[in-house]
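Researcher: Next sequence.
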Amino acid sequence: MNFSVLDEKFMQTALELGWQGRFSTSPNPRVGCVITQGEQIVGQGFHVYTGEPHAEIHALSQAGRFAVGATAYVTLEPCSHTGRTGPCAQALIDAGITRVVMAMTDPNPLVQGRGKTMLENAGIHVSTGLYAERARALNLGFLSRIERQRPYIRMKVAATLDSKTALSNGDSKWITGSAARDSVQTLRAESCAVLTGINTVLADNPQLNVRRFPTIRQPIRIILDSNLRLTVNHHVISDCNSPTLIITIVDDEDKKAIFAPYDHVSVVTLPADHQGRIKLDQLWPILVQHQIGMILVEAGLTINSALLKSNVVDEIIYYQAPKFLGQSAQNAFSLAENPQALHQNEWQTLALDLIGADCCWQLQHAKSAAWAKGLLIDGHNGCNLKDSA
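Model: Next structure:
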């Protein structure tokens, strides 16, 4: 389908608007909308927070009577159902919009083409596919939850030039500089959840929340604690400003009872694998049920290695400090030798930035990159790469 230069310009604006909701819309998708009359924008908006008006409603409110006969540019198919808010497709119809340009259709079974059909049945001309790849990149967490039935997993690693994350005694303050640590706050704010393991909690007693800037939504803290060694003195329990989800293999109600007084804490028991650890493949459907779309992993060698071995890591955010800690220091990963890596690039570099004195690599798995572009989706059951990255 042919799109004009103006179409491209206005959709770019809609995508930029949608990006403004990256810290607050979860579990809903990030969506931007622009309404135009000729070459003039008469209304614009983005989805800010779950339960509040969607992007189209904000844009229509701003456009007012100028919406009659106008074109609406929206980054995701307008919804066709009534949830916490009314259907946006009907709102566009009622406002007198005559053309809608959508970047992509919504794979959510509650929508999935129904919004487009509703608009077309009302006589509105609908065009689809403008900057579809960029629109998918805006919502990788939401799309992964819907299409792959598992979260999109980013792994944050802070290591030295020799890939060490701590001294042999566990001391890791600080591998990277303050600028890099501040940027991690942004990664947390963009995520639905932050995942770590009990060893990290016991060693560092982290808060795993967003503190460097105000946010209206804190990520859920997911703690993998096979033997339920967490206590009420750990920050992830005592701090009630962020929800905490404990994943364990312990099925002892007396042990779980210590967390009962904490309304922000939930405990989920999953089966153990042959090593007595949590079965990771059982975890992802649970997190989808909790509407968790994008996870930031901030863990150590054991969990990092387990996730990489199970081929579920979509991105690695690798902060590399210009230091050497030496042979006896703790490694970032423990993986088997991989001869294929000599001839095949499993990981692609998305970005490389200098943050303070540290380098930050943003890497994406090749199969995840293909899925993110919409190349590995079938119309029947979502992604062909079930439980793989």
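Model: The CA atoms of residues 145 and 168 lie 38 Å apart. The longest helix spans residues 5-19.
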